[in-house]
């Protein structure tokens, strides 16, 4: 999966804070969904259960009541992060596909599994190796 999504993941600002092991595990959990122009990708007022990045296409973020555009999202944009990382937060905008879009996302459950202690020593060994190889 890293071969497929590696370049897309590398562009995300969040990857600078992740170990190689965490990036690999994130790539394994990524899901992809296609949207046609006019499809809602995220809807204002819903709970933030997914963290998204726009792999291809263009999308617009706007407030539903006023239809005021808040942002134009281009390839590589990370979105949905505020409602995703803050507990019990609802989405503040709707994100709608402007062109055909491929959106990669990770669920909150999968994301939390990446950070929970599992007793698996493989992550520890990878991190230990990274520390010594960077010295």
TrEMBL record:
The keyword Transport applies. The keyword Ubl conjugation does not apply. Keywords: Ion channel, Ion transport, Ligand-gated ion channel, Transport. InterPro entries: CNG_cation_channel, cNMP-bd_dom, cNMP-bd_dom_sf, RmlC-like_jellyroll. PROSITE patterns: CNMP_BINDING_3. One of its GO terms (molecular function) is protein-containing complex binding. Residues 14-132 form the Cyclic nucleotide-binding domain. This is Unnamed protein product. It comes from Phytophthora lilii.
């Amino acid at each position: 999966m890293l071969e497929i999504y590696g370049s897309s993941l590398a562009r995300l600002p969040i990857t600078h804070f992740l170990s190689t092991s965490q990036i690999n595990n994130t790539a394994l959990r990524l899901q992809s969904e296609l949207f046609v122009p006019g499809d809602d990708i995220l809807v204002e007022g819903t709970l933030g259960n997914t963290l998204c990045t726009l792999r291809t296409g263009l999308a617009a973020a706007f407030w539903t009541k006023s239809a005021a555009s808040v942002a134009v999202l281009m390839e590589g944009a990370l979105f949905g992060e505020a409602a995703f990382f803050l507990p019990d937060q609802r989405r503040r905008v709707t994100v709608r596909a402007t062109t055909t879009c491929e959106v990669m996302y990770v669920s909150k459950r999968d994301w939390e599994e990446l950070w929970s202690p599992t007793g698996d020593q493989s992550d520890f060994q990878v991190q230990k190796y990274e520390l010594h190889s960077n010295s």
